[in-house]
Design a protein that fits this description.
Blueprint: H1 12-16, H2 18-26, H3 31-59, H4 75-113
């Protein structure tokens, strides 16, 4: 009877190194783990792709012609025009807030000078 060489036998490494068997079984993954890993990886890749295309579409958004006629050709100019728009909106908001504060001060001054009757409340003095 011929003895097989150690490399010809399938379980040879396990016979020679029994501690290897416990290390190999420790690194096998269950089906649930594989599904979780695959789902997580595909979700992460999907999010990265979505953000990439969202940024591309934001750069190609048309900008009103009042800002620049060459904005459509250069995405950086389009983004800069967006910043300019935001600054303009903030300026308008600050102006409206200043007008509101001025109106509030005028109202307080007029209330000191005049007696103001709230017309929404029924008159109970009669």
């Amino acid at each position: 009877m011929r003895l097989k060489h150690v490399s010809e036998r399938r379980d040879a490494p396990l016979e020679l190194f029994p501690e290897l068997d416990t290390r190999l079984t420790r690194f096998t993954m269950s089906t649930a783990s594989r599904i979780t890993l695959a789902t997580t990886l595909s979700s992460a890749i999907g999010i990265v792709i979505f953000v990439h295309y969202a940024q591309k579409s934001e750069k190609s958004v048309s900008v009103p012609s009042s800002y620049s006629s060459t904005v459509h050709a250069d995405p950086l100019k389009a983004m800069h025009a967006g910043v300019l728009r935001d600054m303009e909106q903030q300026k308008v908001k600050r102006e409206r807030l200043a007008d509101f504060e001025m109106q509030k001060q005028l109202e307080e001054e007029y209330r000191k000078i005049q007696t103001v009757h709230d017309s929404s409340q029924p008159d109970t003095a009669t």
